[in-house]
Write a sequence for this structure.
């Protein structure tokens, strides 16, 4: 519970400087999510926890969570938060469009082999 309280407090403080301290926020969010520490506060989902306790929208929290998983820290810091959020949004859009394409194009059944005539 101490780790949870400290992480929440730290995120609340550095939210004011999120453009600069986004890497630390992403790392702390990963800690809270991976160890499911949000359950100690009675939340059944990470999304509900971040929305209510940390006042992050679902999409923003998910993107901040992904930054340390997708990017190297030095490159991420060089690009900055706005560019990273845009890149993650584009990646999500690409994934969604691939899913829609797969769903929109049903697989046609194979034709049975024609009977061999003698």
């Amino acid at each position: 519970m101490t780790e949870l309280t400290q992480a929440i407090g730290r995120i609340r403080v550095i939210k004011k400087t999120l453009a600069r301290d986004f890497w630390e926020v992403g790392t702390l969010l990963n800690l809270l999510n991976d160890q499911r520490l949000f359950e100690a506060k009675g939340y059944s989902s990470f999304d509900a926890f971040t929305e209510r306790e940390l006042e992050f929208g679902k999409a923003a929290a998910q993107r901040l969570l992904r930054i340390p998983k997708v990017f190297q820290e030095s490159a991420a810091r060089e690009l900055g938060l706005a560019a990273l959020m845009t890149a993650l949004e584009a990646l999500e859009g690409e994934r969604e469009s691939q899913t829609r394409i797969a769903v929109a194009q049903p697989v046609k059944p194979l034709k049975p082999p024609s009977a061999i005539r003698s």
